[in-house]
Amino acid sequence: MLKISWSPNYSHPLPVGHRFPMEKYELLPQQLLLEGTVEEKNFFNPKALDLDLIRTVHSDDYLSRLISQDLTRSEIRATGFPLSPQLVEREIQILGGSVEAAIFASEFGIAMNIAGGTHHAFSSRGEGFCLLNDLAVTAQYLIDHRYAKNVLIIDLDVHQGNGTAEIFRNRTDVFTFSMHGEKNYPHRKEASHLDIPLSDGTSDKVYLELLEKNLNSILSNFQPDFILYQSGVDVLASDKLGRLSLTIEGVYQRDKMVLDFAYHSKTPIMCCMGGGYSPQIKDIIEAHAQVYRLAQEIFF
Question: Scanning 90, 175, 209, 210, which has the fewest C-beta atoms within 10 Å of its C-beta?
């Protein structure tokens, strides 16, 4: 059964005019239910993750100051969010959702988190709409609890997964792979194990050829027994922050390639949604919904 992490907390309200589209976290599960892709039984409400598990990735000083709302103004500004206890609670629950989804994936082959993909959170700071790094915490959990020995993080958000790269910079049991806009945020990139910088305006054809080539090349150097997939849809041509030129069909083919890669190699995969900032919310929802449809078609 396809298991999907979702909580009402995912749709935590932000001030009017804030550019981060929180409403997608409410609308996406509604769309999936309406079209019959999933049923209510597919969803689970995740628990907040234990703080000791978060400390396996994030510094105790940063986590303590985040929880006590004691970040500096510049630290808060870097996150892009107005800091609040409710926002921190939401982030900790998202981490719980990704970890629980990964455990379900180890049983069913695949599982999803409606939120997550918070790849800009570093070990000791947040930035870019990310307070804590669910990809990193989940990878560490899988290794520590012997669900996996080698974890591959496939990050296909248009923005480089700089926080994830920093956290696993010197690790050989976690491989970070990021395809992202070369001239897009963050302007100072970190070094992933494999970075593929993309020119502005990159099309479906070029993107998909690069993705296929590099997924295959990873296997010559790294043998994952678990995959975490950041499936951001800010690669769309319509995205106001993306600067690439992928179509909805291109995003579908991208997701199909990744899920086929996991299925045929019998590697469990946990998918989280990442970014998406198209002006029309329907475009964001449709692009995100595709990966859920593919999960049902390929795995079940």
Answer: 209
